Amino acid sequence: MANTVSGAYFMFLFCVSDTVFGLFRYSIPEELEIGAFIGNIAEDLRISVLELSARKFQLLSDDGKQYFEVNVENGILFVNERIDREQLCIESSTCSISLELAVENPFEVFPVEVEILDVNDNSPIFPKSRMTMQVAEFVGPGARFILESAHDADVGTNAISTYKISSNEHFGLKMQTRKDGSKIAVLLLEKPLDREQQSSFELILTAVDGGIPHRSGTAQIIITVADANDNTPVFDHEIYTTSVLENTPKGTLVMKLHAADLDEGVNAEFKYSFSNYASQKVRELFNLDADTGEMRVQGLLDFEKSQAYELEVHAADNAPNVGHCKVLVRLIDVNDNAPEIKLTSVTKMVPEDAAPGTLIAVFSVTDRDSGENGHVRCQIPINVPFKLQTTLKNHYKLVTSDILDRETTALYNLSISAWDAGSPSLSTKKYIVISVSDRNDNVPLFTQSLYNVYLMENNTPGSSIFSVTALDPDLDMNGDVSYSILENQIQGVPAPDHFTIDSKSGSIYALRSFDYEQVKNFQIKVEAQDAGSPSLSSTAMVSIIILDQNDNAPLIIAPLRWNNSAAVEIVPHRIYPGYLFTKVMAKDGDSGQNARLSYELIEATDLSLFTLGLYSGEIRTTRRFTEQITTTQRVVVLVKDNGQPSLSSTVTILFRIPANVTENPSERIDHPRRAEYFSDLNIYLIIIFGSTSFIFFVTIILLVVLKCKQDRNSVRYISPTTYCCKRRNSNDGFHRSPAPNEPLNYYGADQTLPASDTYHYTVRLSPESSKSDFLFLKACHPSLPLSNVSVGDTSVR
Fold it and tell me: Regarding the domain with residue range 130-226, which homologous superfamily does it belong to in the CATH classification?
């Protein structure tokens, strides 16, 4: 056997590499030794040997058996497992093994078909090594008896080519060829039989195949000469042909055979049966009724396994004389096989920035049915960023058709649908799970581009004042956002010196306490940056508005105080009601309601003698002075703001009323002082307080001069003890006409202005409505009415 195969190897071994529409085809004989050369894949694919390993070369087989292997070091395709064509393809006239060669970078698939050529490695075998038959002696020359044929597993020229019979005087041998190409032996009676001369014969039947060298098989034929009936049952047809659908139910009638015997009585009785040549498989699929000749289905018919069955049926009487016929059963294909989807390669993870056309999967679709039943179509859903591309017939590539976005869809459960053209159509689906891997393609975005933060002044350093949030839809490190404050300036100082931010939570903390009176608002720039590579970032502005807190008490700037008291000389008793003694002026470093000041007379020597403007701070007389009025009047004024809680300051003012109206108001009343009340320390204190008062006095002059320049309607401030008056036509303010030739006296005036002309005085607040910083007197034309006094937006009549 080994020598035969080896000889066949040298006679038939040849490899043909043929490319038809991308298909590589090789031909080899069966039973080659393991390691036998088939072809050079690297040369045929035009790929260098070095690329085979680099491109991850793979050899894929349809049935899972590795009959072949490729040496990646030299690119040679060789036999890896014993190949028995008869076991692989049974009796098929053609036999081939389909392979797929796959390489990556880029991914390519090359279909390969290896045809397995038959080698004459099987001898013809008869179903029985000993066959017996009876022949009536009266049968004349020319009678034919079909003998059971031998079976040879080989095909083509290696199949049975001829039959021979041992030499004898009465019988010869004739061969017949069936439609399928197989040959049968027919025993031919050439000389009449004489039972009395010879009652039996022993012949040797030999079946010879066409292989080189020839193989043969033998069987012994025992012929008994009988004196039985002389008629053989004869079938109506030599060949019966019918067609049935595959999957025909069991018990279905296929056909009814009929034979006739011209004998009478028991000699005309016969039975139907399958010949011994019928295989066990056929006997399992069909049942033949021995009496009626009805042939019925008793097994599962499958078109995909066999498309036709050829049967030999006998009708044998009691002689026995045997009649023969052939039954050919063709199967009609039924669409009973759904398409099959076979995945060759699948990429389960694809980056979201993959370019359109990126390979995802390679697969093939097959249908075991034939004709329209096996014509297959394939598609995927239309609302996905993927598409199918056809490579070969029923071979497809799944590639991307659009840009993927993980933030929109992170996972695709893609269905591949395939259906045939049968009626009804059969279909199948296969699902591919494709995960989209994240790329850092999203910038962290703040929930707002500008945040307004309101912060109360005098805040606690280190406390959280606000929290910003930036969102990044990316995953893991690409979506891990950290926060920082950029190096912008706040009053010339870097922002990180004033604030810090938690890099993870975005909480902003103040590192110092802020004073509304120094800074009212500012902006800091916050950056959000992810941890991707390269990292992406965005910024947002945080506008911090400092809210005022009532933390400044009113500051009294006029009249000038000495130990919280002020001495003012005024004209004596003849002062008319409403006479302006002085004006208390104060300012507050806060703003809004916290800087809205009001004045209150909380203490006086004679409360009925004075009135105080609630918002103007003007101290006026309520009546004329009499002789009984004390020459020194003490007044305590409270100035408070409108904050919560309210803050206040007080000032004590002393008024001195000379007894003689003719006295020079500028004269001072000197009281005798005792020497023990004075010392060197007192003198030093007086000098220090005098210097301090002088500096404060000069500061007030400068502030008033600047204020007068800013307000065109304001009265120019000449000195801290005098006011400037000018004539103007105005209806606002307080107007009063003093008595003729009466001097004008008011606080801080060491002079008495002659009243030869009549003047009206208007009291106005500073132009800033929210702060009553200064109050000015303006002389008005005497022709205007003297009936009201306006203080800012407050009128006193």
Answer: Cadherins (2.60.40.60)
- pLDDT tens across 31-73, in order? 888 888 888 888 888 888 888 888 888 887 766 678 888 888 8
668 class by beta-carbon count within 10 Å (0-12 exposed, 13-18 middle, 19+ buried): exposed
What number does CATH give the domain 555-668+678-692?
A: 2.60.40.60
CA dist., res. 380 & res. 357, Å (int)? 16
Q: What is the DSSP letter of 575?
A: P
d(CA 639, CA 650): 6
Name the 3-class secondary structure at 26. strand
**In 537-578, which residue ranges form alpha helices assigned H by DSSP?**
none
Distances (CA, A) of 361 to 188, 342, 367, 389, 652: 66, 11, 20, 11, 98
DSSP-derived secondary structure for 708-746: HHH-TTSPPP-BTTB----------S----PPTTPPB--
Measured from the Cβ of residue 212, the count of other Cβ atoms closer than 10 Å reads: 14
Q: What is the mean pLDDT of residues 417-432?
A: 90
Complete edge-to-edge strand list for the sheet that includes strand 610-612: 580-583, 618-621, 610-612
Q: Which of 72, 9, 8, 82 is nearest to 42 (CA)?
A: 72
Please provide residue 687's backbone torsions phi and psi, each rounded to the nearest 5 degrees. Answer: -65, -45
CA dist 323 to 17, 273, 314, 317, Å?
52, 10, 6, 9
* Prediction pTM value: 0.47
What CATH number has the domain spanning 2-117? 2.60.40.60
Domain boundaries, the chain: 2-117, 130-226, 234-332, 340-437, 445-547, 555-668+678-692
> What are the Cα distances from residue 288, in Å, to 234, 242, 254, 739?
17, 15, 10, 156
Cα gap 210→156, rounded to integer Å: 8
Q: What confidence tens digit (pLDDT) does each residue in 267-317 have?
A: 788 999 998 878 888 888 999 999 999 999 999 998 888 888 888 999 998
Q: Cα–Cα distance between 126 and 207 in angstroms, integer?
A: 8
Question: In sequence order, what are the residues at sequence separation of 6 or more whose Cβ sits closer than 8 angstroms to the Cβ of residue 738?
Answer: 576, 744, 755, 758, 759
Tell me the C-alpha distance between 285 and 298, whole Å. Answer: 5
Among 69, 62, 113, 24, smallest CA distance to 364 is for 62
Q: Do domains 2-117 and 130-226 have the same CATH topology?
A: yes
Q: What CATH number is given for 445-547 in this structure?
A: 2.60.40.60
Q: Which residues contact 85 (CB under 8 A, 6 or more apart)?
A: 30, 31, 95, 116, 117, 118, 119
Structure tokens, 268:
């005309």
Q: Where are the beta strands (DSSP E) in 11-120?
A: 18-20, 23-29, 37-40, 58-61, 68-71, 76-79, 96-103, 108-117
d(CA 782, CA 119): 145
Hey, which bits of 318-463 come out as E strands? 322-332, 340-346, 349-351, 359-366, 376-379, 386-390, 395-400, 411-420, 427-437, 445-446, 450-456
CA distance 784 to 743: 20
Query: If you search the block for the tokens 């007068």, which residue do you land on?
Result: 708
CATH code for the domain defined by 234-332: 2.60.40.60
C-alpha dist (Å) from residue 100 to 53, 95, 343, 363, 777: 16, 17, 12, 11, 109
Contact 116, 149 (CB under 8 A): no
Secondary structure (H, E, C), 287-332 = EECCCCCEEEECCCCCCCCCCEEEEEEEEEECCCCEEEEEEEEEEE
333 CA to centre of own chain: 47
Cis amide bond preceding 192, omega within 30: no
Which letter, b or e, does each residue of 308-340 get, where b requires 16 or more Cβ atoms within 10 Å of its Cβ?
ebbbbbbbbbbbbbbbbbbbbbebebbbbbbbe
Report the chain's terminal Cα–Cα distance, integer Å: 143
Domain 340-437 in CATH 2.60.40.60: yes
Q: How far apart, in whole angstroms, are the C-alpha atoms of residue 217 and residue 123?
A: 6
pLDDT tens by residue, 665-679: 443 433 444 444 445
Q: Strands 610-612, 580-583: parallel, antiparallel or unpaired by DSSP?
A: unpaired
